[in-house]
Amino acid sequence: MDQVANWWDGAELWIAGLPFIPQVLLVLAVMIPACFGIAWMLDRVLSAVFAAVGRAEPVESVVCADARTKVEGS
Fold it and tell me: Can you give the pLDDT at residue 62?
């Protein structure tokens, strides 16, 4: 565990020692794909959970249907 902590401290110090622009670019290059992957995974997991519970398709409320009919009819 100490080796992982030492590696993490070294990586953190390396990133903190970079100038601002490369630091931002590096963080964005890592965080955008990581956040996209986490969001995709949550979407898949929640879709499976909702399908298992029987809520696979969202139920359209009468209020939304009436509002859509009025907008489309105008």
Answer: 60
